[in-house]
Amino acid sequence: MEETPSNSSIYKWLMPLAMKVVTKSGLMERMPAFVTKLHLMMVSCYGRRATMEMTKQFIARMITSGILVFMLTLLLAAVTGEWLSVSLCGLLLAVLAPWIEVRGLSKRIRLQKRSMLIELPEFLNKLTLLVNAGETVQAAIIRCVDSRREEELSPLFRELSIMSNELKNNRSFARAMEELSKRCALPEISLFTTTVLLNYRRGGDDFVVALRELTRNLWEKRKALARTMGEEASSKLVFPMVITFGIVMVIVATPAILIMG
């Protein structure tokens, strides 16, 4: 199971203080718009496990990060003797620390959605093959999920596993698909669930054709995402390459400068 946003050991000794600050100050009641937006992000990241208490813990973690950064800068100020300048920098960093926590959560959500988009076409390929071989849609989804039981479940298959368990417990297929779409909160998943719900009752060639067309479109989106990820990786390599080039220039030029000197 993934780590919840409040159980890192570095924060454990400060978290109780931060939780008291959040509770006593009524911070969640005073900023309903921010809390609602943050809770929706938590739901996108953790699914049905996300509760308001979990959101409260994340806010406490944001406060804890700010306190921890400020304490470290005060310690640095005590060592250097530069109280004013270091304390001002520490205050600025303490204000930025909660924003960095939120950015980290946003990045986690983005990576999770990318992972879902990458795996969805492969899942649809298997589903199409099984349905074309005569399986019902429900049985095909359950078989696809069961084939991954031995492996660590990815974000997509974690949600599909929840859906598979619901189907095994005789939950309505339409309701289970709708819940999957809400939990994933991804347009491509919503398109998949809509396509399935519109066509699965027809069965036969019409349903298989619809799945194949959807799979083809999602493969194109996956290719576009792969190109984007490649461009991002290339841009991240520019700075290390510049640093490496600078170091090589210094190594090459230093003997020549020393000789000329």
Automatic annotation (TrEMBL):
InterPro entries: T2SS_GspF_dom. Pfam families: T2SSF. It is a multi-pass membrane protein. Its main location: membrane. Residues 123-255 form the Type II secretion system protein GspF domain. It is found in: Cell membrane. It comes from the Bacteria. Keywords: Cell membrane, Membrane, Transmembrane, Transmembrane helix. This is Type II secretion system F family protein. It comes from Paenibacillus residui.
